[in-house]
Design a protein that fits this description.
235 residues, mainly alpha, 10 helices, 47% helix, 5% strand
C-alpha cells in the first residue's frame, strides 16, 4: 500500500470517528488544508480533544491535563474558542450567517429609492443590530452613509463565529488600497502609490467610490510624493 493510500485510509477512519458521534469537524476546522497529511494531523488532534472531553466534560479538568487551547481554526480568543468547542460537542451551532439575524427591512431595502434621511436611520438600526451580535463597525467616519450601507450588505452571507463576550470588528481594510471603498477617506489610502494608480494615471478608485469622489491626474503626482517620502524614512 502506498503512503498516499495509507493517509487516505487514516483519513476515512478519523472521519468515521466523528461521524459516529454526529460531529462535523468542518464546523471547527474552517481552514484550507495544505494536503491530506496536514488534515489528518488536525483531525487527530481534534479527536484527542473529543475523547478527553467525553471523559471529564469539564474545561478546568481538561486544562489541568494540559488541554489548554481547543484546536479551533480560525481561532479568536481562548474563552470564545472553548465556547465554540463546547457548543460543538453538544451538537449546537458554533456560528451564524448574518443574513439570518437581520430583518427584511434591512436585507431587502431598496437603496435606489430610499432617501438619504431614511437611509441614515436604517444604517443606525443596522449597526445597532450588529453590535447586539458582537459585531462592531469600524469604518472611517467620513465615508458616506449610503456607501457604508452597501458595504455592510456585502457581509450578509458571511459566517460569523459565536463569541463568549468577545467582539468581531469590521474595519473594511484588506490592505490593498486600490480595491478599498474607504480609500479617499483613509490616510494610508491617500498616501500610498500602487501599480493600478500608475496604469490609470491617477488615483485608482473602485466604481462605487466614483459616485462620491473624482480623482484628477494631479492625484498621481501627490501619491508619488507621499510614496517617495515613505521610502526615505529610516525604518
Amino acid at each position: 500500500m502506498t503512503s498516499e493510500n495509507v493517509m487516505n485510509d487514516e483519513n476515512r477512519k478519523l472521519r468515521a470517528e466523528f461521524a459516529r458521534r454526529k460531529l462535523d469537524p468542518g464546523m471547527l476546522l474552517r481552514v484550507p488544508f495544505e494536503d491530506i497529511a496536514q488534515e489528518n494531523e488536525l483531525l487527530k488532534e481534534l479527536l484527542e480533544w473529543v475523547e478527553h472531553y467525553e471523559t471529564c466534560r469539564n474545561r478546568t479538568l481538561m486544562e489541568v491535563d494540559g488541554f489548554l487551547y481547543p484546536p479551533v481554526f480560525p481561532d479568536n480568543d481562548p474563552d470564545s474558542d472553548w465556547f465554540r468547542f463546547e457548543l460543538w460537542m453538544q451538537g449546537r451551532p458554533t456560528s451564524f450567517v448574518l443574513r439570518e439575524r437581520l430583518p427584511d427591512s434591512i436585507v431587502k431595502l431598496d437603496l435606489d429609492t430610499v432617501s438619504d434621511e431614511e437611509l441614515s436611520e436604517k444604517l443606525a438600526f443596522f449597526i445597532e443590530i450588529l453590535s447586539y451580535h458582537d459585531i462592531e463597525v469600524d469604518f472611517y467616519d467620513r465615508v458616506p452613509d449610503r456607501l457604508v450601507f452597501e458595504q455592510l450588505l456585502r457581509e450578509l452571507d458571511e459566517e460569523f463565529d459565536l463569541m463568549a463576550g468577545g467582539t468581531c470588528h469590521l474595519d473594511g481594510c484588506t490592505g490593498f488600497c486600490p480595491e478599498c471603498f474607504q480609500r479617499p477617506w483613509c490616510e494610508q489610502g491617500t498616501s500610498s502609490c500602487w501599480d493600478e494608480d500608475h496604469e490609470l494615471g491617477r488615483m485608482f478608485l473602485v466604481e462605487p467610490v466614483q459616485r462620491y469622489v473624482s480623482a484628477t491626474p494631479f492625484s498621481l503626482e501627490i501619491l508619488e510624493q507621499f510614496h517617495d517620502q515613505d521610502d526615505d524614512l529610516p525604518f
